[in-house]
Amino acid sequence: MSTAATQPKFSSVAELRDSIVSSGNLDAAWAAKMLHKVPEMQSVKDRAAFLVELAKGKVVLDIGCTGAISKQIKLAAKTYYGVDKVAGDGVEVVDIDHRPDKMPLHEDVEQIICSEVLEHLANPGYFLLALKKLYAGKEVCITVPNAGAYGVRGDCEIVPGDHVCWYSYTTLCALLTRYGLKASECQWYNGPPHKAEGLIMKVTL
Questions:
Q1: Is 172 within 8 Å of 39 (Cβ atoms)?
Q2: 139 found inside a domain
Q3: Smallest Cα–Cα separation from 198: which of 144, 157, 139, 122?
Q4: pLDDT at 203 over 70
Q5: What would the DSSP string read from start to end of 136-147?
Q6: Spatial distance between the Cα atoms of 59 and 102, rounded to a whole number of angstroms
Q7: Pairwise CA distance, residues 195 & 96, whole Å
Q8: Crossing angle between the packed helical segments 68-76 and 47-55, to the nearest 10 degrees
Q9: Is 177 inside any structural domain?
Q10: Using only C-alpha atoms, what is the Rg of the chain?
Q11: pTM recorded for the entire structure
Q12: Residue 31: which H helix or E strand, with range?
């Protein structure tokens, strides 16, 4: 019989917590702190296609915009504003890690896209506060790699060397909550639930 077939199934986080505590391995305080329910969420097959569809016919602010997906977003958008720390065609250069308060304000923006950015920032909360101040009431679509999809192989970590943190559903929600924000829509992208490559969250600033 396979190991997977013998694994117990739990109908709730509370049931899992009770099982761990009753086994005598860990105490109730640890279980309450460490185990968190993740809601059922759909999985988007292709992050690029999702963002391009989101941008279609809209005035878009694309933060962190020098990748290949941004070129597709630019073609789909009605009007396109790009912001990045690296210069490029039509890109407004801003050091969003150290000086997010210098981001430009475009009054006509309808959709903000912040794809694969937060994991690069030393102070993502400062960035979110600056964005909220400039674009209060606007929707931002945030995507991040999912911590649950990666790990260690032998003595090697599987992680881009320019990332400074990992996000899971729980930790990204905690970051948003700390700065007075809440996701209105959450999805996985590129893979099955919990093990997908990344997370998508739509947030009203």
A1: no
A2: yes
A3: 144
A4: yes
A5: TT-EEEEEEEBG
A6: 20
A7: 29
A8: 30
A9: yes
A10: 19
A11: 0.84
A12: helix 28-34
Domain enclosing residue 118, as ranges: 43-204
CA-nearest of 136, 118, 94 to 173 is: 118
Q: What is the pLDDT of residues 51-106, one digit of tens each?
A: 999 999 999 999 998 788 999 999 999 999 999 999 888 899 999 999 999 999 99
Query: 87, 83, 79: which is closest to 111 by C-alpha?
Result: 79
- Of 190, 172, 189, which is closest to residue 181 (Cα–Cα)? 172
The verdict on residue 61 lying in a domain is: yes
The domain tally of the chain equals: 1
- Assigned domain for 76 exists: yes
Q: What is the DSSP letter of 36?
A: -
CATH number for the domain including 122? 3.40.50.150
CA dist., res. 164 & res. 121, Å (int)? 7
68 CB neighbour count, 10 Å cutoff: 7
β-bridge mates for residue 188, sequence order: 43, 199
What three-state secondary structure class fits 94? coil
